[in-house]
């Protein structure tokens, strides 16, 4: 099946980036959103991003020529001849289901329908369509034009053809696809991200460290591109709280009681998009690297311990391999090396001891996974 036209529903942070990436891969693109305000702002952001690439010689085609392949509309009519549609509307399950119902009615029967959801189960979305086998998760990372990863998430209904077409499309978009064997709430990326946020939050709320100290360790010791709170601000604290709730409410992850994120959300301090979150930014929508202390008492092994425990759970449940977790963190979050490799280097025994220590303080989510326990006791790592 040859894909000629890609539809994108939702022109926000992710949608406009996905449209840009699709046009750069030479596809015709139709972007739909509910208002011209959103569409015009998406257009401006795409042009700005294309200009950056063009000025640096990273793309050869002139931005105005790339833009000729993208049409914007407030009507779903433009989806009538789409071959592959990617939905990127807010993470509200009823809204997503409504969008898929509409797409199912309007797109040709051969069209594949993908969701860029960060945590909603794909099967729940697929069930409103008459083509469940053609519905799949295609999860991009912010900012989509820069981040290489695409998580490919089949539901229990998705056909092999749909999986193969999606993997192929991701490669044509110059992305690195990582396929989950089984659908799991939050996928790999956001389950790990959640665990990093929870430990960061726990350390601050329990008085072990300040926000800046946690982020200093993330950036200066683990060499991550952003601190954990900084990244949360960048992603949006509404998105962060949302994926936190979806994963915890699914019953597949023990919660860590921590209120800071929810409080920020309730105060409508949503991070970069509102100009204020855990840190202050120059203006709404304007990210600037935050200033952090060079040194910090936060132990990097402690900071990643819960995320590593989650990684072990994903491996044990046959969802992905250690290597795929590492690919997710390197290409989806720009980690300098994989999380599981970091764990091996910092010492599994060390990670295990932090988990035991925090678990003993009453945080049940830190109960060491049996794979970690086994590796710690036999002095082995995730890699030989
Ligand atoms: N379009 C084009 N170029 C862009 C761009 C865009 N949208 N955004 C950034 N760039 C370019 C800049 O021009 C700059 O290029 P240069 O190095 O040639 O000058 C380069 O990218 C770096 O950007 P900045 O100098 O502005 O800032 P940083 O050096 O801090 O890098 C970053 C920004 C690439 C975002 C980096 O901080 C990073 O990798 N952060 C981690 C991002 C991350 O983890 N994303 C995943 C979030 S989780 C997610 O999305 C899943 C969801 O479901 C929650």
Automatic annotation (TrEMBL):
Record bears the keyword Cell inner membrane: no
Keywords: Oxidoreductase
Molecular function GO terms recorded: (3S)-3-hydroxyacyl-CoA dehydrogenase (NAD+) activity; 3-hydroxybutyryl-CoA dehydrogenase activity; NAD+ binding
Identification of the protein by name: 3-hydroxybutyryl-CoA dehydrogenase
Location of the 3-hydroxyacyl-CoA dehydrogenase C-terminal domain: 186-281, 302-379
Transmembrane segments: none
GO process annotations (BP): fatty acid metabolic process
Top-level EC class as recorded in UniProt: oxidoreductase
EC number(s) recorded for this UniProt protein: 1.1.1.157, 1.1.1.35
Residue ranges occupied by any 3-hydroxyacyl-CoA dehydrogenase NAD binding domain in the UniProt entry: 5-181
Pfam families membership: 3HCDH, 3HCDH_N
Protein's organism: Saccharolobus shibatae
Superkingdom to which the source organism belongs: Archaea
């Amino acid at each position: 099946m040859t894909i000629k036209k890609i539809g994108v529903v939702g022109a926000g942070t992710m949608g406009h980036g996905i449209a840009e990436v699709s046009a750069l891969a030479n596809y015709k693109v139709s972007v739909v959103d509910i208002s011209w305000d959103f569409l015009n702002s998406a257009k401006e952001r795409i042009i700005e991003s294309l200009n950056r690439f063009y000025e640096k010689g990273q793309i050869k085609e002139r931005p105005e020529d790339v833009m000729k392949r993208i049409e914007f509309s407030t009507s779903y009519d433009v989806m009538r001849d789409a071959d592959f549609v990617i939905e990127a509307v807010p993470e509200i399950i009823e809204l997503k289901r409504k969008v898929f119902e509409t797409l199912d009615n309007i797109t040709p029967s051969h069209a594949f329908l993908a969701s860029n959801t960060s945590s909603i189960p794909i099967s729940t979305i697929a069930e409103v369509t008459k083509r469940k086998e053609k519905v799949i998760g295609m999860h991009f990372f912010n900012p989509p034009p820069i981040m290489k990863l695409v998580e490919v998430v089949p539901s229990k209904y998705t056909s092999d053809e749909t999986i193969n077409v999606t993997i192929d499309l991701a490669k044509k978009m110059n992305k690195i696809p990582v396929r989950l064997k089984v659908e799991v709430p939050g996928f790999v990326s956001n389950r790990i991200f959640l665990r990093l946020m929870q430990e960061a939050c726990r350390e601050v709320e329990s008085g072990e460290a300040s926000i800046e100290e946690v982020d200093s360790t993330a950036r200066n010791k683990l060499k991550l591109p952003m601190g954990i709170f900084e990244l949360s601000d960048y992603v949006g604290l509404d998105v962060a709280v949302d994926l936190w709730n979806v994963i915890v409410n699914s019953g597949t992850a023990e919660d860590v009681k921590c209120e800071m994120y929810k409080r920020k959300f309730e105060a409508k301090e949503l991070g970069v998009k509102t100009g204020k979150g855990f840190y202050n930014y120059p203006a709404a929508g304007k990210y600037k690297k935050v200033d952090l202390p060079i040194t910090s008492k936060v132990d990097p092994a402690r900071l990643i311990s819960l995320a590593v425990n989650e990684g072990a759970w994903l491996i044990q449940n046959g969802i992905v391999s250690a290597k795929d977790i590492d690919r997710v963190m390197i290409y989806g979050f720009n980690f300098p090396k994989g999380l599981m490799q970091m764990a091996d280097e910092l010492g599994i025994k060390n990670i295990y001891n932090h988990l035991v220590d925090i678990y003993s303080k009453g945080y049940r989510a830190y109960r060491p996974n049996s794979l970690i326990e086994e590796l710690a006791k036999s002095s082995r790592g995730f890699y030989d």
